[in-house]
TrEMBL record:
This is AAA+ ATPase domain-containing protein. Residues 336-368 are annotated as: Disordered. Pfam families: AAA. GO terms for biological process: protein import into peroxisome matrix.
């Protein structure tokens, strides 16, 4: 009996092997397995075909990204004697507990799976379809598929063996002998028959009860959307690790090959636009480029550029480079501004060639002497490993939208010639703060370690100055350069509202430095506490996150080396925690480390709320950067909007944009028996917010503090105390070092007395979303949910007039429950699904349809009608009502 019937999963490691199949009787998208391995894996089977689920090795270790569909494969059971006769062709090295899978080159190319990739397979129950829709890409294929011979052959094949089908894939049935009687038959027709729709799952088998529909797509074949089949393996980011377009010849080092392709005229420095990658998994997969030699650089300290950019820089792939950031860009030449004769040989954007002659150096030294009286922060520079990331296309500006330069989580890492991709933590450590997360006009300067002095842009003098770094004569590859090792590192715990400042995270620090890290003095490091449940008890109930991201600031590195930029730290480095400090933080680190970027709740720019985020940012940014004109004003804001419209979501997104902490309290929890006790709670809340500064102090339901505990009369003592507390804590006067912004929310401004409204300098009102905004919010809420092609968000947005973000979120939840009921009823056949069958159902992949949204809308509207006492909509047909009227 198969293992899935016993409720357990017998997962086995497998390796691919080439096999010479008979082209006439084998579907190239099927895999082969020996009969002996099949007996150990599936048990004794009467059929010559079996269905198994396949996952890649990196997909098994993926954390934090939810359950993904697996790839169902059809395994053809081969006789052991046939396999032994073909052993010279397969060239398989038998290993214990490893199952050889015999595949064709067509299989690897079709699913974008490398031949040397390790996979894991296990038996799976493929549920039968109720309906399958195939589309013929050519007229010839359509005439063949609608023939009676095709339907007869498919019916015979279904009765004899399991016929697999997959959404957006080719015809996966075995080679049917009956079809060979048709003169128009050829195996090429299998590839021209595309699966357009299948119910109730995305992968399954065709049964005798399945309705098979054939449609003609020959006129619209160019309009078909491209859906990569690699998503069934959870490898949408496989293109991120794409190697250069031209593979390296055998026996040639890819780094040396790139050196031979370098242009004769090189730039000491290039200027690129930053593109922030929100998830660590994207950086991790992109860093696993097989053309890069293994180095001591961690994945977070790697930057990715196009091949044209690394050619202009004149360094091999995988070399160490120095990067810095400046808001004042030097004169830049692009292909649009160059003369026509030079535009063809120019790729992207770069800094003009730097004159390193003696006269230029002398002028630069004079610039340094002239600017001694000007106090300027030292430019922050970092050492990174530069990696080529080539692809066949450029990312259009319309795809990135308002998220630019923040890469959308569902977009592949596709770079333009003038862009550089880097992590948000590295981006944070390159800035002097306060600095916002998204800076469209900021450039990243990349230079190689080849000169004894590098050039730094001096904004006051609008010129370049010499800044000493590392002395060498040739570009430094990653495997020949080693930054100095740090013996002692002193860390200061960054004060935050998500964890107590008295906590010790020794185990998290130890795990962090198990990987060799590249650190610089003044950097912030981010530690995840997800794997340490003992920290949950320390956080308590008063903290928003049970597994927070812990921030440490590197205050000192010993021994200090002259002109050293970065140091290597490992388990052999002594780490000391020296007190606590206040600092800005990379607020997107929780998303980056957990690989969970929800497009609404954890995004710095949630769709549908962008205009309110922009308004709030314009108001509070002068207070964050401590503008002199705001010194005597209180940084306070009253945010008004209906319940569930997204007021707290806007504030959280603002904290991510401005790299500051967020401390949230519900004012109903601040109420006490007496006015004095309420004042004490308010002062205690402000004390905690001041500890976490720079911080936004979000006071939800501020109208609760306007009334006494019984909610009958106003409490002037509490209102006066709150006004005084806001004025004393939210102003910049008195030498206060870190800013504190107070934002209060209320559903109705009429419930807030005038005396309490006067506590806030600004007021922003959030209205119910428009139809366009509702569509954007629905698309964002359903971004991580597989939706069918029949889902019309425009129609749903029209039917949800008057709803807010909370209502739309509830609608999506009801839709998922409706889809769950539909799928379970179609697959269970009157009995409950076992746990193993539920896992197999998730591996098969499910989709929500327009009908699921319709059911959810009807349920919510009926519940709302019952709440307000409105009559329900009559389901009487028009013909019946006419008969009643006539009678």
């Amino acid at each position: 009996m198969a293992s899935y019937l016993r409720g357990t999963r017998s997962e086995k490691k497998a390796k691919f092997a080439r096999f010479c199949f008979d082209v006439a009787d084998h579907n190239p998208l099927h895999l082969g397995i020996s009969k002996s391995c099949s007996a150990q894996f599936f048990g004794d089977r009467l059929s010559n075909f079996a269905v198994a689920s396949m996952r890649l090795e990196n997909e098994r270790s993926r954390e934090g990204e939810g359950k993904r569909p697996a790839l169902f494969v059809c395994l053809r059971i081969l006789d052991d004697e046939v396999v032994r006769r073909s052993v010279t062709i397969t060239q398989v090295v038998e290993l214990p507990d490893v199952i050889p899978l015999y595949a064709t080159d067509t299989f690897h190319e079709h699913y974008n799976i490398p031949y040397e990739e390790d996979v894991y397979i296990y038996p799976v129950k493929a549920f039968p379809f109720t309906k399958v829709v195939y589309g013929a890409k050519t007229k010839r294929c359509y005439e063949w598929a609608k023939n009676r011979v095709f339907s007869t052959g498919l019916l015979v094949s279904v009765c004899q063996q399991r016929v697999l089908a997959r959404l957006h894939d080719s015809f996966l049935a075995p080679v049917i002998p009956v079809l060979s009687q048709d003169e128009a038959y050829s195996l090429q027709l299998y590839e021209e028959l595309l699966t357009l729709e299948c119910e109730p799952t995305m992968q399954g088998v065709i049964s005798v009860n399945t309705a098979v529909i054939i449609t003609d797509l020959s006129a619209n074949v160019d309009k078909l959307p491209h859906v990569p089949l690699s998503r069934f393996l959870g490898v949408e980011e496989r293109q991120l690790a794409s190697s250069p377009n031209q593979p390296a010849p055998a026996g040639v080092d890819p780094q040396e090959l790139l050196v031979t392709e370098l242009m004769e005229k090189k730039s000491e420095m290039i200027c690129l636009r930053p593109l922030l990658v929100p998830k660590f998994s994207t950086i991790q997969v992109a860093g696993n480029n097989q053309n890069i030699k293994e180095s001591l650089c961690e994945k977070g300290c790697q930057i990715f550029v196009k091949r044209s950019a690394i050619r202009r820089l004149g360094v091999p792939n995988g070399s160490w480079v120095v990067i810095s950031v400046s808001d004042f860009a030097p004169k830049v030449q692009t292909a649009k501004t160059l003369p026509p004769e030079q535009a063809e040989s120019h790729n992207g954007t770069h800094v003009e060639d730097v004159d390193t002659s003696k006269e230029s150096v002398t002028q630069s030294e004079n610039v340094v002497q002239d600017t001694t009286a000007i106090e300027m922060p030292k430019p922050k520079v970092h050492i990174c490993q530069i990696i080529v990331h080539d692809d066949q296309q450029n990312r259009s500006a319309t795809n990135s939208g308002i998220h630019a330069p923040f890469l959308h989580p569902k977009e592949d890492l596709v770079l333009n010639t003038e862009e550089v991709a880097l992590s948000p933590i590295l981006w944070f450590n390159l800035h002097h703060h306060p600095a916002p997360l998204i800076q469209p006009d900021t450039c990243v300067y990349v230079r190689h370690l080849t000169t004894s002095s590098s050039l730094i842009w001096l904004p006051e003098k609008r010129n370049w100055i010499q800044y000493p770094t590392i002395s060498c004569e040739k570009p430094i590859p990653a495997d020949s350069f080693k930054p100095p090792s740090a013996s002692n590192i002193h860390l200061a715990l960054v004060k935050s509202s998500t964890y107590p400042i008295t906590s010790y995270f020794d185990e998290a620090i130890k795990k962090y430095f198990k990987t060799t890290r590249l650190v610089s003095e003044g950097d912030l490091i981010c530690l995840t506490t997800k794997e340490f449940p003992e920290y949950i008890q320390n956080t308590g109930d008063g903290y928003e996150s049970r597994t927070p991201i812990v921030y440490y600031k590197i205050t000192k590195i010993l021994p200090a080396k002259p002109h050293a930029i970065s140091y290597l730290a490992s388990l052999h480095t002594n780490v000391f925690q020296s007190g606590a400090t206040s600092s800005f933080i990379p607020a997107t680190a929780d998303v980056f480390l957990s690989n969970r970027l929800h497009p609404v709740w954890r995004s710095p720019l949630p769709l549908g709320l962008v205009k309110y985020i922009s308004d709030v940012e314009d108001i509070i940014w002068p207070f964050i950067k401590r503008s002199p004109e705001c010194e005597r004003l209180a940084a306070s804001l009253l945010l008004v909007g209906p319940v569930g419209c997204g007021k707290s979501t806007v504030v959280r997104a603002m904290c991510r944009l401005l790299n500051i902490h967020c401390y949230i309290v519900n004012c109903y929890n601040l109420l006490a028996d007496t006015s004095a006790a309420t004042e004490a709670k308010i002062n205690n809340a402000f004390f905690k917010a001041n500890i976490a500064s720079p911080c936004i102090f979000l006071m939800r339901n501020i109208q609760a503090l306007a009334k006494d505990r019984d909610g009958e009369e106003e409490d002037p003592r509490v209102i006066a105390s709150l006004r005084e507390t806001i004025t004393s804590n939210a102003t910049c006067k008195g030498g206060k070092e870190w800013p504190l912004v107070v934002i209060a929310t209320t559903p109705n401004v009429r419930n807030v007395p005038a005396d309490l409204q006067s506590c806030f300098l600004h007021q922003v009102e959030m209205l119910s979303p428009t139809e366009v905004e509702r569509k954007q919010l629905l698309q964002a809420l359903c971004e991580d949910i597989p939706t069918a092609f029949d889902v019309d968000f425009d129609h749903i947005a029209k039917r949800t007039a008057g709803t807010v973000l909370g209502d739309l979120s509830a609608l999506v939840s009801h839709t998922l429950r409706a889809a769950h009921k539909r799928i379970v009823s179609a697959c269970s056949l009157g009995s409950e699904l076992s746990i193993s069958e539920e896992h197999d159902l998730c591996d098969a992949g499910i989709q929500i349809h327009q009908s699921d949204f319709g059911i959810a809308l009807d349920e919510m509207q009926a519940a709302h009608a019952d709440t307000i006492g409105a009559p329900k909509r009559s389901n009487m047909m028009l013909s019946n009502s006419k008969i009643i009227c006539d009678s």
